[in-house]
Structure prediction request, 256 residues.
Amino acid sequence: MFQVDLNSDLGESFGNYQIGMDEEILKYVSSANIACGWHGGDPMVMDKTVALGKKYDIDIGAHPGFFDLMGFGRRNIDVSPEEIKNYVKYQLGALMAFCISHGNKIQHVKVHGAMYNMAAKNKDFANSIAQAIYEVDKEIILLGLANSEMIESGKKFGLKTANEVFADRAYNNDGTLVPRGIEGAVIHDVDLAISRVIKMIKTGKVTSITGDEISIKADSVCVHGDNPEAINFVKKIREELKKENITITPISNFIK
Prediction:
């Protein structure tokens, strides 16, 4: 039997700026990665999104990133491994307060944007993220890019780890994501994206942007919720996975 988590990055609105359709997306996913106020989100949005997660019985993850609202956390920033560790701790602690106040807990941490992509390749950054989680709560799962340095660092620190794959992103031959600025980096064909996800889950393989078959492990599938087509996409991917007898469930139910 195959099982997989469906996650989405949510709570990324800020003040008067509305991003995504969080409540609609929450009806179809099994986990939510909630922004912690640095690349997106603010105290009001964090509180509301955690409450919605509770309402829909969705497992919650912290989604920390760089302090870069204008760049939405997608710009590389020159920082030290020690800074990365404390950035993650700071944001994890903030979201944890809202979870506690709503009688909920944090299932996982998935870092955002540039921090995510940098830590996928940079062992020191990956170690910093894993160490930050371990020092706060070693029961929290580290959700990272499949087969990346983040997964290795999580194991090194004794954390439970979950491999994340992307429905709508192209892969390089080394398993990293193709940068968004490159043509073909984002997959807009919904049927193609879904067929790739099913292949990743069932065969452990994905076709890279150069046409090569590479190995990949799919514990959790990220479905983005920040565009009008997102609702139809997440509904369809959920329907198709069920047709393939793939059980959708939070990673905490099968990552031990």
